[in-house]
């Protein structure tokens, strides 16, 4: 009976949580959250983070400003960028559009290729749609940069055309046309 209880305990995943520590390497006081927090009473500038599940942490209240989608621990928060602070956070479901692949990952999803171009109606990385601006609020400059990066990852030089598509308050890239040449 004890063995069965230990197996069941080991098979039970930990509930989603975010622990924001005041010092590096998970030391010092921690602010622990297990539910969505659209308006934290104060900004928290963590020095390290422990994450169970997938969470979106934002610099402004109501999930605005620069947001990061995080699904792993950071013993030193400097890996998230200088001056990162949290004013709101929420849990994300698996497959909720993180779509920030490692540099070797190429875009996927149904596409149509020609001699010197490729078109994606709804590009993906893995099984997740590509966010227009993975590190913050969607704007045209950021979306263009994301579309250009997608084209380069796919082996093309130029993004010729792209659109933004909003689905459930998330802004994705759509209708991407990449070409090998920058001639018009």
Note the main attributes of this structure:
184 residues, Gamma-B Crystallin, domain 1, Beta/gamma crystallin 'Greek key' domain-containing protein, mainly beta, three-stranded antiparallel β-sheet
The coarse silhouette is: elongated
CATH fold group of the largest domain: Gamma-B Crystallin, domain 1
Architecture (CATH level 2) name of the largest domain: Sandwich
CA(first)-CA(last) distance: 73 Å
The main pleated sheet reads as:
4 strands, antiparallel
Topology pattern, helix = H, strand = E = HEEEEEEEEEEHEE
Count of distinct strands = 12
Q: Tell me the domain tally.
A: 2
CATH C-level label of the largest domain: Mainly Beta
Summarize the structure.
The chain has helices spanning 2-11, 140-153, and strands at 17-23, 27-33, 48-52, 54-60, 64-70, 88-92, 111-113, 117-120, 124-125, 128-129, 158-167, 170-179. The protein is mainly beta and 184 residues long.
